[in-house]
Amino acid sequence: MTHVWMVRAGRGGAAAEDFSRGYIAIGWGRIGDLSSATTPADIRRAYASAYPDAKLGEVGNAVAMITKFRSTIKVGDRVVSYDPSRREYLIGTVAGEYKFDASVVKEHPHVRKVEWTGRVSRDHLRVRSRNTLGSTLTLFSIPDDVFADVLSAATGTYDLEGEEVSTLVDEEREELEQSREDTEVRALELIKDRLLRLDPEQMEHLAAALLRAMGYRTRVTPKGPDRGVDVSASPDGLGFQEPRIKVEVKHRHASAMGSQEIRSFLGGLRPGDRGLYVSTGGFSKDAKYEAERSNFPITLLDLHDLASYVVAHYESFDLEGRALIPLVKVYWPAE
Fold first, then answer.
1. pLDDT for 180-204, tens place per residue?
2. What is the DSSP letter of 128?
3. What is the number of structural domains in the chain?
4. How many other C-beta atoms are found inside a 10 Å radius of the C-beta of residue 77?
5. Which of 113, 132, 161, 238 is the most buried (most CB within 10 A)?
């Protein structure tokens, strides 16, 4: 069965011109010639030797990509690559077995010959096809319907201009919204991973930074007996103006807070106080019930809630807060 692959021409399509001369290629040149390495285990050993400091997840992803290029792709398989300078996809057929040749494609010495048979403008593809082919993975399989769309556009048998404009706009809006939601979910999980790397003291300072970003002045309690209060916040920073917010921070990812911890915290609050309890390990059902029935206003933040609040208020974080959890803004097309 003929398979269809997308092989990206380096970061930002830097190798697109070399690809157009009849090649597909990947990097990881320090591994050297893999002609005798035919199995994933062989390639993993070669990768580990060439990149001894690579993280476990990085190793797995790289070995999977290299194995596909080295051994899984077959002569006769169809292949697509992208030339961003022309906004065109190259369409071709794999014509040669794997070889190691550093002289063909700059910084991409693992190469295979390809016979390119056509090009198609990105603008002539359906929204779903553009989004699928826009993946940043070095190498991946292309679904049959997406490749069919590419071939139709290349041969002129599909008239995109004939589509209703409103239909195309709705389709693009739906695809963008789904992609945006998927990206936000993945980003939030990565932010939660970063939060878990903070130590307990850093987590207290992060809670204080969040409250400062929300307009309060804060004080982090020095180490020692704190009677259940790690951070104090108020409009004036001295506690004379309400609301006075008392914060307890428990940075124990594998340990959910129970009702007893909530009762103990509530016992230290006084009239005019508001309570904020941060637990990266979450809260038990009884703990949530204890908070709901409290006579004092209290908010419980688990890891997911904390990450969501950090994202929502990050624009107002000061330098101290940003140093604890460095984030970058990603721009997304508006409707």
1. 777 888 888 999 999 999 999 999 9
2. H
3. 2
4. 17
5. 132
Q: Tokens 């915290």 identify what position?
A: 265
Here the CATH number for the domain that contains residue 17 is 3.10.590
Residue 193 lies inside a defined structural domain of this protein: no
List per-residue pLDDT tens for the chain, 335 residues long. Answer: 679 999 999 888 889 999 999 999 999 999 999 999 888 899 999 999 999 988 877 888 899 999 999 999 999 999 999 998 888 999 999 999 999 999 999 899 999 999 999 999 888 888 888 888 888 788 999 999 999 999 988 887 655 554 544 555 555 566 666 667 778 888 889 999 999 999 999 999 999 999 999 999 999 988 765 456 899 999 988 888 889 999 999 998 778 999 999 999 999 999 989 999 999 999 999 999 999 999 999 999 999 999 999 999 999 999 999 999 999 988 877 76
One domain, residues 21 and 138 = yes
Task: Among 161, 192, 209, identify where a domain stops.
Answer: 161
What is the reported pTM? 0.62
Distance CA 290, CA 265 (A): 11
- CB contact set of 78 (below 8 Å; sequence gap of 6+): 2, 3, 4, 5, 91, 92, 93, 94, 147
Q: Looking at the structure, tell me whether residues 70 and 219 fall in a common domain.
A: no
Cis peptide before 143, with omega less than 30 degrees from 0?
Answer: no
- Pair 318, 217: CB distance under 8 Å: no
Whole-angstrom distance, CA of residue 26 vs CA of residue 109: 7
Classify residue 95: in a domain, yes or no: yes
Same domain, 221 and 135: no
**Domain hosting residue 306, numbered range:** 200-324
155, 13: one domain: yes
